[in-house]
Each structure stands twice: as C-alpha cells, then as structure tokens.
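Summary for the funding panel

The consortium committed to producing paired sequence-structure records for every protein in the target list. Below we show the first two records in order, beginning with the earlier of the two.
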Amino acid sequence: MLTLLKLLKDGRFHSGEALGAALGVSRSAVWKQLQHLEAELNLPIHKVRGKGYQLASPLVFLNAEAIALNAPSLAWPIHVSDTIDSTNAEALRLIDAGHAAPFLVLAEQQTAGRGRRGRKWVSPFAQNVYYSLVLRIEGGLRQLEGLSLVVGLAVLQALRELGVLGAGLKWPNDLLVVDKKIAGILLELVGDPADICHVVIGVGINVNMQKAEEVDQRWTSVHLETGVAVDRNHLVAQLGIQLQRYLERHKASGFSALQGEWEQNHLWQGQVASLIAGSSQVDGVVLGVDRQGALRLSVDGVEKIYSGGELSLRLRDDS
C-alpha cells in the first residue's frame, strides 16, 4: 500500500491503468489497495471517472537527507519508520540494542502513540510530527531539572517560526493556541538519573491534521492556524536547531536561566486553576514555576510548590 501511496503523493490524478502498470497488478487490485489506504490511513482519495485517482492533498514524506540539509549543524543519526507503535518505544528499544546517543527517531504513523498519564496520542499517517530524541545525560540530577519545560520552549520557538504566533505553554508539558492543544511532550528516563542515564525526549506536534474525530480534547494544528500546509522535514529541522540551542543553555546554566522566559510564555500565568492528582484537587492562582521547574501555586494566599509526573493543571472553569 505504501508503494501505491508514494505514487499518489504528488496530489495529481493517476489512472488506474497507469497505477496498475507501475505496481504490476490489475486495476481491480489497485482499487482494493485504494480502499485499504482510505480505511487504514484515513487519507481521503478523489475518484473521478476518466481521470483516475488523486489524494485530497499532496504528501511530503519524512526524509533524513532533507532534514540534514535543512539543519546541517545537527549530527544526530535519524531513524525514520513508516509505521511503528510509538517513537518513544522504538527509541527505548534502540537504547537497549546499544545504539549510541544522541539519535533521533521519527515515524509517519504511530499505532500506539502515548501522552502523559498513559493517554493515547492520535497519530494519523504522514500528517503530523512524531519525534523522539535520545540523549545521554551525565552530571547528575541538575541536568534533568526543568528539562521538559526547556523542551517546551524549543517547540514553541519552532512553531512561531512557522507563523503560529498565538502558541503558548501550559505547565508542565503541553503547548496550546488559546485553549486548543497543538503539541505535547513526554520524557522517559533509562538508567540512574543521579549518575549516567538516557533520556528520551518525545514530542508530538499536530502539523497538517485537519480532521480527527477520535481526539478527546480541544485541538488545533499548524495548518489550521496558518492556512498553509507545512513541509514536516523543515519543521523537524527547525525543532532540532531550537532544541540544540535551548539544551546547550540548560546544560551551561540550569533551568533557572530560562525560568523567566518560560513564565513569560505560560498562557495560564496569573490564572485561577485546579491542580489534579488522582482523585484530589487543589485550587489556586498560578504564580509560575520555581528554579527546578515545579509549579508555584497560591493556595488561600500561601505559596505552595508542586511537582510530579501525575499532576494535571486545568483552568478553574475548564470542564
């Protein structure tokens, strides 16, 4: 099926006869593959008698060479898959197999994409960015303090480079446009964080997606915000450049050097919000974050600090 899709990727009409000849199959076999493409990859295909078949919009596939040309300063090996369970899971397998960090894992589609707290990350084929960068961390816990927030700043700058000027941060790991999610971050650690470990920086960005009925929260995409389809290779390259810049600053000076910039871009700064952990809830005013990236919340006039992977922040009136 992917061979057929690559024949159609230019967005032009192709006759069933020409497609069959290129694939070495009958026109009826082409028809069956087209039905599978629509059903399994959720890609609309126009069918016009006398003209043939056409993707509703052209596709540009992820390509390691194109990414390297757009970001020649990055020396990360790039692993690109058509379909895998998740880029983070593949990154963890490559660590176990002995691949030396840093390296980058990308996929056109995830069958089991994951967000924070085990939530599903919807991952349609060749529409978004599913990105996992593996780093080797030496020097102890200081190198991990506020790391997910630092990654958020890098993703934010990459989105703004594409014209998504209304994007902002939501503690701890989301990027929103107003109240709609456009990107999320999931970090996973392997090894001893107090000594030497690997961290997988997982980033999911809604890029060219325009429909997704299975998403269970308000969302948007770069295409919906700008009205322009995006070359994902360019976005991946820009994200890599921004990550390299922010990670170098973080390594040199710690999160405290970026604390002010993060708070300036936090959409819920000064807002009344609810912090939820399991069945418990704390209401307060968002003051910002501390020098380690933990949430600062004013509860009944008293500043309190919260951190942890299972916390969720919501606006007070957010249902």
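The next record, for a separate protein in the list, is shown here:
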Amino acid sequence: MLHIREAVLNDLPAMLEIYNEAVRTLTATFDLEEQTLEERTLWFEKFNERYPLIVAELNGEVVGYSSLSKFREKPAYSQSTELSIYISSKHRGYGIGSALMKEILRRAKKLGYHTVIAGITAGNEESIKLHEKFGFEYMGRFKEVGYKFGEWQDVLNYQYMITQ
C-alpha cells in the first residue's frame, strides 16, 4: 500500500538513489554529476515546516519524493513556492506522482502559498501531463538554458494558482 509521509533523515539514501538515477538518465535535473550523501544531507537540511519534503513509501520502500522550496530570494516572493517531484524509474506510471502531487498541493494551500511554480524540461511529457492534470498552466519557455546529454535543453514554466 502506498503511504505519503514527511521525509526523515533515514530516507535520504533511497532519495539519493532516485535523484542520482535522474542525474544519470533524465533532463529533469540539470545536475551533471551524481550527488554524494553529504551533499544531499545539506540539501535535506533546507526543508522545514515552511518548505516541506515528503516521500511516497510502497511496501516499506521509498519510491518517490516531492518538495516545496523557495521560488526566489526576494521577500516579495514569499507567497510563491517551487515544486519538485522525483519518482524511481521502477515505479513510474502507477499513480505515485499523482499521490505526491495531491499531498504537496494540499500542504501548499495549508501553508498559505498563493502560487506554485514548476520548471519542466521540454520533452518530459509525463511530467507535463501530471502537472496539467492538477491544473497547472503553461506560462512560457526559457529556450536553451541548460546543456545536458550533448544538447541544449528548454525549460517550460508552469504555474498553479491556489484558491483559498
């Protein structure tokens, strides 16, 4: 059974493997080198009550995670947040992304955010479908802003407006 819960430090090795798999095989992240456990521990420590980090656990195994983080540093952006979702390749297509999305958007609303931003690399059709399913709207494209796997990558900007 799928269980969505707050991430804990003991989840970090599984989350690291999911992330590093994305680094190696996807354009979903623009990191070019796999992260170490120490680097991801520093990343993990950035999350708190205002910026949640949740995991999807299936039969005791962490199979995906989602987070909210600062959209930009300036104080006027404090009611905007940026969303990330990563799913293990072995568990994609089973509704885990939807379960994570539903919960992270519920938390964003509860935290009083006004809008949620997502940057999706062009060509990531599964992510685009997931975001559109939950009401994210396409807002524009940054052309050739990342270079990965020998090609320039565009980033599509999506936005979800929270109604209170």
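Regarding this second record: The longest strand covers residues 137-148. The chain has one domain: 2-161.
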